[in-house]
């Protein structure tokens, strides 16, 4: 849970007032990172269901090595599609 | 809706690791050896520290930071055994200490009068394993009232530790705990682990623990 909370902190820091617009948080999880992806995903769902977020979905990207990092964030900027 | 992608590529632990490096550098300036004590809740961290402070608190100029989710009960217990400030960090729900909390806590500690600093982490065998606090070494307490397979269930904590202290050994005649199997499990996860066996209640094994601490603390400065 602590890792999910830290990911929430990073997202909030990057987005500021736009945090409620977050729709996806993508996290790289290495196979040697010592993290169970399904557990992290469960915790991330809980963190991102709580304000200032509004139900963003986690997207776990499996990779090799011990990497554990926030890969990218997707936000809905409210503008209509082109 | 229009979805915009923001590239981040930030290590999850980056900020904490940077702060831990600052803690480590600050402690090194004063020659303070920091030990991060971790375990399940109820494994005996506070009781071992009570005995340690009582025996070595003055000799080794020991200071303590305690972490708890709620209450400063542990700090209050330890304060009885030392004239030094016991710095309590109440995490307010978080399941571990982080390096920023330790940096803030050591602001209140007279580092020039400290040779050994104990950080009593929140009782939890999962989250604290991920958070470098700037310590010299992490020590896991493993009580004989737990299951012998704890190291297999929570390997990261035992992988990151240099030492495991088997606690509450006075209870061995009363519990179905296979010490050899427990130690073998710990060593299977981390063959480099040193293993101590203690009972803070009877004092059994504490001599070896105290000797280790004496070896870990920097010698008393004789200059100036």
Describe the secondary structure blueprint for this structure.
The complex is a heterodimer of chains A (82) and B (224).
Chain A (H helix, E strand, L loop, with lengths): L1 H14 L6 E9 L6 H11 L9 E7 L4 E9 L6
Parallel strand pairs in A: 1-2
Antiparallel strand pairs in A: 1-3
Chain B lengths: L2 E9 L2 H16 L3 E7 L5 H12 L5 E7 L4 H7 L6 E5 L8 H8 L9 E5 L16 E7 L6 H4 L1 H6 L2 E5 L11 H11 L4 E4 L8 H11 L8
Parallel strand pairs in B: 2-5, 2-6, 3-4, 3-5, 6-7, 7-8
Helix pairs in contact in B: 1-4
List keywords for this structure.
heterodimer; A: 82 residues; alpha+beta; hypothetical protein PF0899 fold; three-stranded mixed sheet; 2 helices; globular; B: 224 residues; alpha/beta; seven-stranded parallel sheet; 33% helix
In short:
Chain A has two helices and three strands; from the N terminus they run αβαββ. Chain A is of the alpha+beta class and 82 residues long.
- State the shape of chain B: globular
Number of strands of chain A: 3
Quickly give the structural class of chain A. alpha+beta
**Number of helical stretches of at least 4 residues of chain B:** 8
- Name the chain pair whose interface involves the most residues: A-B, 29 and 25 residues
Provide mean pLDDT of chain A, rounded.
91
The largest pleated sheet of chain B is described as: 7 strands, parallel
Regarding quaternary structure, what we see is heterodimer
Q: Per the principal axes of the C-alpha atoms, what is the gross shape of chain A?
A: globular
Helix content of chain B: 25-40%
Describe the protein's architecture and organization.
The complex is a heterodimer of chains A (82) and B (224). With 82 residues, chain A is of the alpha+beta class. Chain A has a single domain (2-76), classed as 2-Layer Sandwich (hypothetical protein PF0899 fold). Chain A has helices spanning 2-15, 37-47; strands spanning 22-30, 57-63, 68-76. The longest helix of chain A has 14 residues, at 2-15. The model of chain A has no long low-confidence stretch (mean pLDDT 91). Chain B has 224 residues and is an alpha/beta fold. Chain B contains eight helices and eight strands; from the N terminus they run E-H-E-H-E-H-E-H-E-E-H-H-E-H-E-H. The longest helix of chain B has 16 residues, at 14-29. The termini of chain B are far apart. The model of chain B has no long low-confidence stretch (mean pLDDT 92).
């Amino acid at each position: 849970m602590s890792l999910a909370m830290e990911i929430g902190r990073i997202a909030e820091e990057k987005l500021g007032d736009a945090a409620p617009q977050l729709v996806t948080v993508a996290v790289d999880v290495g196979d040697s990172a010592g993290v169970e992806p399904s557990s992290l995903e469960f915790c991330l769902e809980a963190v991102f269901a709580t304000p200032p977020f509004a139900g963003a979905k986690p997207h776990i990207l499996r990779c090799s090595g011990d990497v554990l990092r926030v890969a990218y964030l997707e936000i809905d900027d409210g503008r209509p599609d082109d | 809706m229009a979805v915009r992608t923001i590239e981040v590529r930030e290590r999850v632990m980056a900020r904490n690791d940077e702060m831990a490096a600052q803690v480590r550098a600050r402690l090194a300036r004063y020659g303070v050896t920091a030990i991060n004590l971790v375990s399940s809740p109820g494994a005996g961290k506070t009781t071992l520290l009570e005995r340690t402070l009582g025996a070595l608190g003055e000799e080794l100029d020991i200071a303590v930071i305690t972490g708890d989710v709620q209450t400063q009960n542990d700090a209050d217990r330890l304060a009885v055994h030392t004239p030094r400030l016991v710095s309590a960090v109440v995490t307010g729900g978080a399941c571990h200490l982080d390096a920023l909390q330790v940096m803030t806590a050591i602001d209140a500690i007279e580092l020039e009068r400290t040779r050994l600093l104990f950080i009593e982490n929140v009782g939890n065998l999962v989250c604290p394993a991920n958070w470098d606090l700037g310590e010299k070494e992490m020590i896991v307490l493993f009580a004989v009232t737990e299951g012998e397979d704890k190291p297999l269930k929570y390997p990261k904590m035992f992988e990151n530790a240099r030492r495991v202290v088997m606690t509450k050994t006075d209870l061995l005649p009363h519990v179905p705990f296979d010490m050899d199997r427990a130690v073998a499990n710990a060593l299977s996860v981390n063959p480099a682990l040193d293993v101590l066996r203690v009972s803070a209640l009877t004092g059994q094994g504490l001599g070896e623990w105290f000797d280790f601490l004496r070896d870990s603390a920097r010698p008393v400065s004789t200059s100036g």
